[in-house]
Amino acid sequence: MKIFLLAGCFISSMAYSQTAEEYFKSADNKLAAKNYKAAIADYSSVIFINPKDAKAFCNRGIAKDSLHDYKGAMADYSAAIAIDPDDAKAYNNRGLIKEQQKDYRAAMADYSDAMNLDPKSAAACINRGRIKDKLNDYMGAIVDFNKAIAIDSNYVSAYLNRGNIKNHLKDHDGAIADYDKAITIDPNYASAYFNRGLTKILLKQKREGCDDLAKAKELGYENVQDVIKKYCK
Questions:
Q1: Domain containing residue 192: CATH number
Q2: Residue 171, number of CB atoms within 10 A of its CB
Q3: Which single residue of 8, 86, 103, 166 has CA 20 to 30 Å from 21?
Q4: What is the pLDDT of residues 170-228, one digit of tens each?
């Protein structure tokens, strides 16, 4: 399942010196260009000038996160939250690191805080739903995926994740309907073809299922060839 890092924390409303403004703008441009090390250097300059800039900490955390410096990113997200307890994106992004560390309860708490602070965050809904799935709270996960879809009806991964849970609950027709919707939104969504293909094979629709698996392979889905060999002889 995909996870959703919320990039680009809001620009701080605190007044900057001219130099800090330039550093922040430069850092944002470098972050957008995926020049993460240079972005970190510029955000660090902002923080040196203004140690209370929560958004510089949050954005530097995003850059560190992108370089797999998860310890450093966690520290920056926590610093951002300590300065600005209303920073929903910092909670969401810190939750992703906790989830990666398999600290699921703590991750869910961060995602819940992100949702409470920003009720329109579909990404936080999906992230919390994914945690509930891992904790076997399947109906709770569906509720969160439904919330994400209500916020953004074209959020394709919400349909995929909800379909996966419906499959787990043996609502295979409902799962296929969700995969269909995901593919309608994104005709190149390999994961949806793969999962729909397996579901159709489970329902004895071998030809249609194998066609989906072939499409997933065409779109670059990894390790699908072994599944095709197993089910599509």
A1: 1.25.40.10
A2: 15
A3: 86
A4: 999 999 999 999 999 999 999 999 999 999 999 999 999 999 999 999 999 998 999 99
Tell whether 147 is covered by a domain. Answer: no
168, 138 contact by CB (below 8 A): yes
Q: How many structural domains is the chain composed of?
A: 1
Count Cβ atoms within 10 A of the Cβ of residue 146 and give its class: 0-12 exposed, 13-18 middle, 19 or more buried.
Answer: middle
Select from 134, 136, 92 the least CA-distant residue to 113: 92
Q: Is residue 140 part of a domain?
A: no
Nearest residue to 12 via CA among 44, 42, 57: 57
CB hemisphere CA count around 146 (13 angstroms): 8
Question: Structure pTM?
Answer: 0.86
Residue 138 lies in a domain: no
